[in-house]
Amino acid sequence: MKTDLVALVNPPSSLGTVANREGAAGLGNIYPLRQGVPYPPQTIAYVAAAARNHGYRVQVMDAVLSNYTLSMIVHHLEALEPDVIGVFVSHATFDADVAFVNVLKARLPESRIIVFGPVTRFRTEELAQESLADVVLLGEAEGYFPQACDDLLAKRSVEEWDEVGSQSRVLGDREGFVEQIEELPFPAWDLVDRSKLWRLSLSASRGCAEKCSYCPYVAAQGPRIRTRPTESIMEELQYLIRALDTRYLVFRDPAFAASRESVMMLCEQILRSGLIFRWECESRPEHFDHEMIALMKRAGCQEIKIGLETADEGILVKVERVRDETSARVHAEKTAKVVESCRLVGLRCRVFAMVGLPGQTCDSVDLTASFIEEIRPRALNVKSFEAYPGIRLAAFPSGQEDSGERLYQLREGIEQRESLANRISRPGILSRRGLKRRIESLGLRLAGR
Questions:
Q1: Which CATH number among 3.80.30.20, 3.10.105.10, 3.40.50.970, 3.40.50.10260 corresponds to the domain 198-403?
Q2: Which residue has the higher pLDDT, 220 or 168?
Q3: Homologous superfamily assigned to 5-172
Q4: What's the whole-model pTM score?
Q5: Higher pLDDT among residues 427 and 214, named by residue
Q6: % of the chain with per-residue pLDDT over 90
Q7: Nearest CA to 122 among 341, 392, 420, 424?
């Protein structure tokens, strides 16, 4: 057992926001304070497990979960005096993360600082030149972090490192994906303050073989699916549920249901195991069918997330969501079928739509909104296109995109309808007359009610 102490840090959110560095495959999202919910720090938990397995003493400090300010997290680190500080950085929070690292280095000059996260592959030189980090770590961090700590603490000569900037050194591999992900230790959730988390996350696979030119998951995790055996996933589920008493899990796979056989086998194993928990997943609409959805429901699934993105066939082809307009029509049909199957078995289906895509007009947004109103999903997420580093769809001049106001209004209406439906499911909350008045006040019609 090494005596060296490693502190892994999720930096604080900027004022009035909630930072989600796990979002967009680790390239990050920022939410307004009133809308943001802290996300399970899976990347940090993986790195913590790898460092601990390598013999280091490890502490995790999640400033977002703990709602720490900059001064608070720095004060805690000063008291801790770690030998190495690992800082999770993202594209969305890039400027704030660089500033945070520089404050840390000024206040704790004896601690070695390693920055990690998918963004390091794409903004390497900026991190090396603008931050005071000792190492910019490339590749999936759990595969390289322990060795980077060894190198730093052994004071290996800088001539052996790939020098990019005058301040920082670069270690790892720009294309450093962990091939055998089942060989990684389970994320060290026991080192995370879980008191403010109502769910944890896991990954049954990484990467996606689809060609969507706007997707950060392909950029961050690679254009190929790396899967884990069912036995490995079940072992982690046993740990999460029985050892950590987890009751809700999010599968972080971008294409969870790409292999029908794997999903069916996993669900059967969950049912045979007697494990009782709720979970959600995400995949393309065409990956699902009614039989699979029904089995997933029996195995505890509560929500399926699917990306419609847009109902405009031309845009779907343009952003390479589908091959051609015939495939675009099939995509829409499959989306409608998944929503209906979920409704029939009692699952929540969350549809994702995008605004600000190249060529998107008011007519295009109206077409998408009308389609969503027709299929009536139980949840809707609307996301603006962002030109994440590494994606193939380039940014475009401002003024070409539509704001998508109708989609945002539709999302609010769906949320109100779902909230009302949840109240109806509890007897005694509303009388029939009160219910009718409430529905009319929202301007909504509840399907099947």
A1: 3.80.30.20
A2: 220
A3: Cobalamin-binding domain (3.40.50.280)
A4: 0.89
A5: 214
A6: 78
A7: 392
